[in-house]
Amino acid sequence: MLVASIALLSACGGGSGTSGGSNATNNTAVNWPAAPSWPASAVWPATPVWPANSGSSGSNSNSTPGNNMPVNPSNAPANGPATITPVSGANAATITVDGKTSINQPYVTITLCAPNAQGSNPCATIDRMILDTGSSGVRVMASAVSSLLAAQLPAQTGATDDPTGNAPVAQCATFASGFTWGSLKRATVSIGGESSSVMPVQLIGDTAFTVPADCSARGGRNLSSASAMGANGIVGISNLVYDDAAAANTVFPAGFYYCPGTSSCTSTRLAVNKQPLNPVAAFPSDNNGTIIRLPNLPRTGAASATGQVIFGINTQQNNAMPSTVNILPLDQYGNFTSIYKGRLLTQSAVDSGTNVLLFPDSTIPTESGFYVPASPLNLAAIFQSPNGARTQINVPFEIDNAENLYASGNAAFNDIGVNASGLVLWGLPFFYGRSVYTVLESAKVGSQAGPFVAF
């Protein structure tokens, strides 16, 4: 029997915002919209754990990023590693998909530094950070940071509803697969040769404050440990800059909190400049978007895959966007419309943090939600902008039998899918063999304003 967890890192937020003008080097004047608000009707496949890995079954919740999805250690990979020819430049960093923790999970390495830190260890190099185009903000496991560095990270304060203005701020960050709880701190983040200004980041699972009841009740599974998430954190580089702009004006449950005491956290509004920030927007240059490059894969997958994330688009010689790419404008939440077998699916997103193709098709056989067709299927969807005004883009894709893919022993797959209703996530399988451009809201690439994705 095939039962497995699914990594779904699209952010779940509420509300909306308005956008103003900006350019590739100055995002400070923009009132960025909130993170995507996924519909309550979304139905997730049940129960998780790849067979033959732990000798147990069904003990973990579904939709857990990176948990219990390693390559079967008893199976030798059917194919070797897949790679690209990398571009050189300080604005590029390596992406690794290796299956040590999860199939189809893209990891990068960051350096986290305390601002104006004193002492011999003001920074930490942290690997196995999930690169996620479905959320915004940097979230680091406290377990990946030394106590010395953690003590030098200033607490984010100044919540709108805090009468003192001095209480530390914490966050319940919700995703389609669970939540992360932890304090907001101020730090700089470096990826490759790019370094951010001082910005808020979430220190996940730091145990400074008790998880509020509404966070536990609404957030789903607690992902606030490296073992639960299968990673040391998340680098959110979506089309949005701020985590949840609507939370600047509205108090949302399972959102931001000011915490005057260990067990006395109160829901609050929080200005956008005090929220976790898309690190690309905090770079002094190369800050209008990203390019993710991953190699082509054979139909049965690869033992591992190595690619690149490149910062900036049309800002250097190594990040030019060809005039022949397909450009897909997005709405204020980063969504577009997929048309699949005549059905309009308006809650669609391109999301590197999701490790499968998530779409509804009741005609394909499933096992624990995973598609298991008798033979490989050649399918296609049409992508169009939310208002349908742009040219429709035909996108062919493949779906193979998940049980057979698992049996191959590989870790990277471009044709593994899951049946779900209510939303469509074109996860990491969509990225293989493509250069995928993610452009920030109201930033520009030439005359084309974001938010948009291109490929």
Plain-language structure description:
The chain has helices at 147-152, 213-219, 226-229, 402-407; strands at 82-83, 92-97, 107-113, 123-132, 136-141, 169-175, 178-191, 194-195, 199-204, 233-237, 256-258, 266-268, 289-293, 305-311, 327-329, 336-340, 343-350, 357-359, 366-367, 370-371, 377-384, 393-399, 417-419, 424-426, 435-439, 444-445, 448-449, 452-454. The model is unreliable at 13-73 (pLDDT under 50). The radius of gyration is 21 Å and the shape is globular. The strands form five sheets. Strands 1, 2, 13, 14, 15, 25 and 28 form a seven-stranded mixed sheet that branches. The protein is built from four helices and 28 strands. The protein has one domain (1-455): Beta Barrel (Cathepsin D, subunit A, domain 1), CATH 2.40.70. By secondary structure, the protein is mainly beta.
Short description:
With about 450 residues, this protein is mostly beta strands.
In CATH, the architecture is Beta Barrel
In round numbers, the mean pLDDT is: 85
What share of residues are in beta strands? 25-35%
Instruction: Name the helicity range.
Output: under 10%
Counted by DSSP, the helix tally is 4
* SS-derived structural category: mainly beta
